[in-house]
Design brief:
Helices cover 34% and strands 22% of the residues. By secondary structure, the protein is an alpha/beta fold. It has a single domain, classed as Ribonuclease H-like superfamily/Ribonuclease H (Nucleotidyltransferase, domain 5), CATH 3.30.420. Strands 1, 2, 3, 4, 5, 6, 7 and 8 form an eight-stranded mixed beta sheet that branches. The longest helix has 17 residues.
Length: 214
């Protein structure tokens, strides 16, 4: 009998921090990866046979240079994220280096993984999508949680979801695990989406399906 599908979550940082990835089969961590090279991380995802990949980085640039629709929709719910700029602006400021790293990762992954654009949720095949750990944590907690205490809060939420966090040595791995948990919800069809195909869709668990939401 075929076992549960592997999923991966990836936290994206700048040039010095690079990428941190966590693979799950259901609630069990089956692998971790840390690398500064997007191609290495994409190859690791393929080798671990990931069915779905959640990524904490914008999948599309802003068409206007202002916050994308997904970011505005989340802000209306009290969940705030850095506004994604245009590609041109991203190239002019070092702060956006992590977003450029994310774009590089998507380019590598899209050779095998379909980028989810809000449509065809049940389409067969491999898929990657954008997610946002702070928004995921708020959904799992059932309230807006503090970003100042994110390490302890997010680790606790992962434990409540049945995930052993002993292998998650830093906040980057914790956030990667939240992205992977969201990929589990994605495969189960239990997600909520924000945004549109043109500027990118952000995926979070469906609040009615999240374990710790009443």
């Amino acid at each position: 009998m075929e076992g549960p599908s592997a999923v991966v979550g990836i936290d994206v940082g700048g040039l010095r921090k690079g990428f941190h990835a966590v693979a799950l089969r259901q609630e069990r961590i089956v692998g971790t990866c840390a690398s500064k090279d997007a191609g290495t991380v994409a190859e690791w995802c393929e080798n671990i046979d990931a069915q779905a990949i959640g990524i904490d980085a914008p999948c599309r640039w802003s068409a206007t240079g202002r916050a994308r629709q997904a970011e505005r929709m989340l802000a209306a719910k009290g969940i705030f994220a850095f506004a994604t700029p245009s590609r041109e602006k991203a190239g002019s400021r070092e702060f956006y280096r992590w977003m450029l790293n994310g774009a590089d990762l998507y380019r590598h992954l899209e050779r095998r993984y379909r980028l989810f654009d809000g449509h065809n949720r049940q389409a067969p095949g491999l898929v990657c999508f954008e997610t946002f750990p702070h928004a995921v944590a708020c959904v799992l907690a059932g309230t807006i949680v503090s970003a100042k205490s994110k390490r302890s809060i997010r680790r606790g939420l992962l434990r409540e979801a049945g995930i052993d966090t002993s292998r998650l040595s830093n906040i980057d791995m914790i956030d990667a695990a939240l992205c992977a948990l969201t990929a589990n919800y994605f495969l189960a069809g239990q997600i909520t989406t924000y945004g549109d195909a043109s500027e990118g869709v952000i995926v979070v668990p469906d609040p009615s399906s999240a374990r710790s939401v009443s």
